[in-house]
Structure prediction request, 234 residues.
Amino acid sequence: MTDFVCVPFYDLFQENGHVPAVRANLLPLMAGLRRSILEIGAGTGLITTSLADWTPAEIFALEPSAGMRAVLLSRLSSRPELLGRITVLSCDALTVALDEPVEAVVMINVMYALEPDYRKRLWPVLAASVETAGLLVFTWRDGGPPEPRPLRELQARQVGRHTYTVLSQILDSGEEACRARYVYRITEGDKLISEEEITGYAYFPAWNVLSRELASAGFIQAEGAEGLLVWRLA
Ligand SMILES: C[S@@+](CC[C@H](N)C(=O)[O-])C[C@H]1O[C@@H](n2cnc3c(N)ncnc32)[C@H](O)[C@@H]1O
Prediction:
C-alpha cells in the first residue's frame, strides 16, 4: 500500500505545512456550528481535533486509508475528552451513509486525490449527507495543475540522528491533471537509511468545471475564505 510510504512523514511536514493557514481561515467559517460535522479525508486528524476544539459538534471523521486512520486514532486516544463525540469512519467518501444529515461537510486537501468522474459522483452524495442550507467547505486553488519540473526537495526535518526529506517532481501536466512523483528519504549524515517513492495523478479542476458540478448537485456558492470555498445546500 503506497499510503504506508508517506504516512510516517505526514505529520512531520503537514503540521507546519498547509495546516496553520487552513486552521486560521477555517475557524471563522465554523462559527455557529453546534450539532454535527462530516470531515471527508480526515487523514491523521490534524484538522479533526481543531474542529472538535472550535465547536461542540459531533464529528464524523471519514478516512479510508488504514495507515492515516491509525495515526488519527492515536491522536484521538491522546485526547480522551474528545472520544465521546468523534466517530471514525473507514469507508471512502462515495459510500458514506449517515443516520441523519450533518450541519456541515469539511474536506481539506482531498480534492486533488479525486478523479474527475469520482468527484462528479461525490457532490450528490455530499448533498444527501448535509441538511438543507448546510455547509460544504473545501480547499481549492485556482490555476490548474503545476507545470512539469525536475525533482526538488520540498522540506527536511530532523528526528534525532535522522533527517526525513520529501522531494517532488511533476512528470507531466495536462488540462486538469498532473502526474507527480514523490520521494520519501531518511538519511543519517551521508548514509541512506531508506528511500521509497510514489507516483500518481493529482487533479486541479478549473472554477467553471467545479461550479457547474456543484450547482447541478444543488449547491449555491456562499462567502468563503483564503484557499477555502464554501457552498450551501439550497
Ligand atoms: C493530504 S491528506 C489530507 C488529510 C487531512 N484532511 C489534512 O488536511 O491533514 C488527503 C486524505 O484524503 C484521503 N482520501 C483520498 N481519497 C479519498 C476518498 N475517495 N474518500 C475519502 N478520503 C479520501 C486520503 O486517504 C488522505 O488521508
About this structure: The chain has six helices and eleven strands. The helical segments are 3-14, 19-26, 48-54, 66-77, 116-129, 207-216. The first strand starts at residue 36 and ends at 40.
